[in-house]
Amino acid sequence: xxxxxxALLIGSGAREHAxxxxxARSPKLGTLYATGTSNPGIAAxxxxxxxxxxxxxxxxxxxxxxxxxxxxxxxGPEQPLADGWADKLAQAADGSHRRLVFGPSAQAAxxxxxxxxxxxxxRAASIPTADARxxxxxxxxxxxxxxxxxxxxxKAAGLAAGxxxxxxxxxxxxxxxxxxxxxxxxxxxxxxxxxxEERLQGREVSVFAITDGATxxxxxxxxxxxxxxxxDTGPNTGGMGAFCPADTLDDATLERIESDILIPTLDTLRxxxxxxxxxxxxxxxLTPAGPKVIExxxxxxxxxxxxxxxxxxxxxxxxxxAPAAGTLDAVNVSWSTDASVCVVLAAEGYPDRPRLGDEISxxxxxxxxxxxxxxFAGAKLDAGRLVTAGGRVLSVTARxxxxxxxRELAYAAAAKIEFKGKQMRTDIASGAAAPxxxxx
Length: 440
Ligand code: AMP
Ligand code: GLY
Prior knowledge:
The protein is 30% helix and 25% strand. By secondary structure, it is an alpha+beta fold.
């Protein structure tokens, strides 16, 4: 018997619950520890840690990893990656050995955490992306906008919890966006510099690949739904649902994305001695001139991860260890031929001001349906009652032979769950056709 693998999972959302569930299925797992055990779903699968999980005291988490003989650290969210957790936790506190971390170094994570840096890298590598200018002075930004006639997208360069992108519909709105980000500092230091981008037209898709900086392992195609309400109306959210596989990309477009975008990005990083280890998430616009990058993220999408991990049939520990272990070219990965659909249940007031503390009923009934997994996000146990504790409360995820069947099952399960003010789109994965491509 090989030695069991002890793992530490960082993060507390439904994405991390889905990762925890996949890791817990591995026969190789020794003990799974997690920082996010305030999430009842993660708590049911993992042992809580007894040290603080914060950047200022990261050495304590590092010592914890040594004491518990952690072999693999999996980092879900972008903030700890931007704060250098992957760099630090990859080393033993006394420097005696290294451990495997799934997630890029702080330098590589700049692809997401510094949109200006990312834009410059794309420019240097001739990667197709929206034309852009970077500003650190709001007056200069205003002056630039005043000379232009076309529409723009205004982005805080730093991490802003998914809220730092404004898509204005007039010059006035563009100027107001600059003011909000740079003068009123709506996103704090994330708005010290901004990127003013050409507004691209087309269909939006995303692509996920696991990589060690050289080898690319494309993940199954999936699609999220970002707007709050049906028919893509209402405010932008982190994602109200997703399905996998998606019919959004044909083989030829996917190959073009690999050869014109993913490979040159990794090559450029490697040339600069910044190997990218983990999952690379590329948001793209399919423009008439071909696919162009809207953004890079250095983590799994949420809720896309819930649909991807639900379809993973091979060993999650093998897959998540492979980039850091340098075994990605040899890892055995297989996906279920089933499709998966995730429907997010959000709290009243999400995304602006979600109401917290509403009692949630029906989760055990939903969970009991074959093929259904309810992943927890903004939900917690309060004196034995399950209550809402965040904007996106639950990710109801179903697996079935086809997308329409998985969709029906996910909605049947979601209908069993109630809480006051529950928000849910009714059109997740509706009209999704069979994928028009043969891979994954
Ligand atoms: P992000 O927070 O970076 O995911 O951006 C939020 C949304 O803004 C994206 O999902 C796109 O719909 C939109 N967006 C971002 N950049 C552009 C662009 N250059 N052109 C058109 N839409 C964009
Ligand atoms: N679902 C979009 C994201 O995770 O950013």
